[in-house]
Amino acid sequence: MMWKPFRSNDGNNFMVKWNKNDQEFTFFVTNLKQIWTSVCSIESIVVKYQQLNPLFDLKLEEAVTQVLNIFEDINQAEVKVTIDGSTLILKIEMNLTGSEASNIKTNFEIEFVKAETEKFTEMITIAMIQTINFLETQQKMLCNLLEKKDREIEEYQMEKGLISRSDLVTGKFDPHSLISSSQKLILNVFGNSKSFMDSIDNEYGEAQENVFQVEVESWNNVKKKRKYYDSKTALNSKCTKIVYKNNNS
């Protein structure tokens, strides 16, 4: 499950996420400085929900669904956060899910225990590094795709002449337009060191995301001179074509 951001009643920012393993849930909450965790069995979640909402008569599966809906839409809830030493308590109040019950309030409360620094490093710091690297890889792919498009158009114009339809003519993409010079953002950093990311992946596991790879083929790295066809070359021009790399057709 992805992180769900929310704002507490006193104006502080938090994120929460949870994982299901066998018959229990593990919840995590962070203020981006520290992280707290809570391991709850399904039975304990249902008991707590029924204690806080005695007027609701729900089956086990329905109660669990309501609790998960609360966390799923936590950014729309009233959330009171209490931190006492290593303990953090979330008290959540929101409208019961369902259009016919929009004015009925439902409550839930969960207690967390502060986790070790290593858990924060693993779930926040490393995850952000991997996210940034993933976005950098995506950006590189998109830049290559746009450059490939520009060069394919240029190749076409060299072989066939100018494109006549104005709605097909596009401005040439400048890859440098996406390079940020900000001294505050962490951009174009991690993707520049393969050994750095390899060590992160080896210790914490690879990010489970794949990016479609696009490379600008060597054949259109070199500009071609425009070919002009006349009556002497007309027959040969029928056989003229652009040969694409890795083209099996």
From TrEMBL:
Pfam families: XLF
GO terms for cellular component: DNA ligase IV complex
Source organism superkingdom: Eukaryota
Keywords annotated in UniProt: DNA damage, DNA repair, DNA-binding, Nucleus
Residues annotated as domain XLF-like N-terminal: 2-109
GO terms for MF: DNA end binding
DNA repair keyword on record: yes
GO biological processes: double-strand break repair via nonhomologous end joining
InterPro entries (alphabetical): NHEJ_factor, XLF-like_N, XRCC4-like_N_sf
Family annotation (CDD domains): HD_XLF_N
Compartmental location: Nucleus
Family of this protein: Belongs to the XRCC4-XLF family. XLF subfamily.
Protein name as catalogued: Non-homologous end-joining factor 1
